[in-house]
Write a structure and sequence with these properties.
Elements (H helix, E strand, L loop, with lengths): L16 H5 L16 H14 L3 H21 L5 H12 L6 H10 L1
Helix pairs in contact: 2-3
Length: 109
């Protein structure tokens, strides 16, 4: 796993009118609660301690890193060698424009 600085994601926040009126109030952010079995918690606490972090910071950073990796993987275009060759060949030899395309070009160019 590569180490990189976690990107801060900006979740949509729901702020009550009472909090929104106070300009001096600092929001700590949204809260996520979940349960784990004791073995899993011990594992996470141990890993956090080895990193010199607390449990919350460790779990949050790990979840953010995994979310970023997953999003990047799904947003990338992955081609087989055959697909790549077909794409490059199509770019090298584009088809002749149709009459409709020529008319659109004259109209909007």
């Amino acid at each position: 796993m590569t180490t990189r600085k976690a990107t801060k994601l900006s979740p949509t926040r729901h702020v009550s009118k009472k909090v929104a009126r106070k300009s001096t109030t600092t929001s700590r952010g949204d809260r996520i609660d979940f349960r784990v079995n004791p073995k899993t918690k011990d594992l996470l606490v141990r890993a956090a301690t080895l990193c010199g972090s607390n449990l919350t910071a460790f779990v949050l950073e790990s979840a953010q890193e995994r979310a970023i990796e997953l999003i990047e993987r799904y947003e990338q275009l992955r081609l087989t060698n055959r697909d790549r060759d077909l794409l490059l060949a199509a770019l090298d030899q584009p088809p002749e424009p149709t009459e409709a395309l020529r008319q659109a070009f004259r109209k909007y160019a």
